[in-house]
Amino acid sequence: MLLEVSQIQKKYSPASSSLVLNNISFQQNEGQKIAVTGSSGAGKTTLLKIIAGWEQPDSGMVMFKGEKVKGPEEQLLPGHKGIAYLSQHFELWNNYTIHEILHYNTQLSDKESSELFQICRIEHLLKRKTNQLSGGERQRVALARLLITKPQLLVLDEPFSNLDYEHKQILKAILSDIEQYEKINFLLASHDANDVLPWADSVLVLQKGTLIQQATPHEVYYYPINEYTAALFGYYNVLPSDIVPAQLMPENRKHSNSCIIRPHQLQISNSNIPTSLQGRVKEVLFYGNFYLLVIETTFAGTVLVNHPNHHVAVGSHVNIEFCNF
Ligand SMILES: Nc1ncnc2c1ncn2[C@@H]1O[C@H](COP(=O)(O)OP(=O)(O)OP(=O)(O)O)[C@@H](O)[C@H]1O
């Protein structure tokens, strides 16, 4: 077992009645990529900081490779040598060159360093000073700075949140290279479905400090535990269970009255034969590779349906059917 998080509780203000983290427990196996997601203020950063030893939990324990991760109140220098934490608000020393920053206290040989700098796409930046870098470059240097300590677990807090598309793709390629060459384990917090779903082996969903679902990306996307989780991963509909085909119902919620269905699981019927779901098209919204139809239905309120083209007129009456899966 790489990481074992047991019954973590945290509140920042002793007077406050609400917990920032409420009894969080989960485990991470060697090689498993875990993403922590949740809306703003759900407790992602606090959880990551506690795991990395940068924040003190009120109770509970973090074990890393069988050893307790001590909080800042239990040791002089915060952090754990096997765990590297890249904060959203990382800092780089001012007035030093990148070369100086990355060679201070390094545990790497020259060959290893040069490989790492290549992986992090920063070889061309070594002579510059920290104030001569873009945001994306600063982040890659901060990442390399963590990796020279040879951590076994890299904890990344919203690493993509301030990057444009191009720099996001660069960082994703870097993380994939690091995973292959350095054999590092990852724990990542993000509120963006596009960062979480294609990347993670397991997704932890936090809602107001409580871990409400831990499952594969496929499960959290298609079988979210509640509407909050559904909304984290994109548009959704809540439909009465009696009109939803059995194969689309989550196994453990067969008796529930409603079911979450994604817009691409529905389509407009080509035939005039009435289906169990009918309505009037209210809006046709362009999303690049598809159109989103907003349809006012008779029985299920507003229903969203993906459509490949705009050949559906606003105001027209349509029959909605479930796609074949
Ligand atoms: N140092 C602190 N002192 C007091 N309250 C704090 C502190 N840090 C965080 N909080 C509060 O704890 C809660 C959880 O914050 P946290 O930063 O862990 O959430 P988050 O899910 O990472 O949010 P975001 O996605 O916006 O970064 C929030 O209500 C926040 O206001």
UniProtKB/TrEMBL annotation:
UniProtKB keywords: ATP-binding, Nucleotide-binding, Transport
PROSITE patterns, alphabetized: ABC_TRANSPORTER_1, ABC_TRANSPORTER_2
Superkingdom of the source species: Bacteria
Protein name: Iron(III) transport system ATP-binding protein
Gene3D superfamilies referenced in this protein's UniProt entry, alphabetically: P-loop containing nucleotide triphosphate hydrolases
One Gene Ontology molecular-function label: ATP binding
Domain ABC transporter: 3-233
Family matches, as InterPro entries: AAA+_ATPase, ABC_SmlMolc_Importer, ABC_transporter-like_ATP-bd, ABC_transporter-like_CS, Mo/tungstate-bd_C_term_dom, P-loop_NTPase, Transp-assoc_OB_typ2
A Gene Ontology cellular-component term: ATP-binding cassette (ABC) transporter complex
Pfam families: ABC_tran (PF00005), TOBE_2 (PF08402)
PANTHER family per the UniProt record, alphabetical: SPERMIDINE/PUTRESCINE IMPORT ATP-BINDING PROTEIN POTA, SPERMIDINE_PUTRESCINE IMPORT ATP-BINDING PROTEIN POTA
Upper lineage: Bacteria, Pseudomonadati, Bacteroidota, Chitinophagia, Chitinophagales
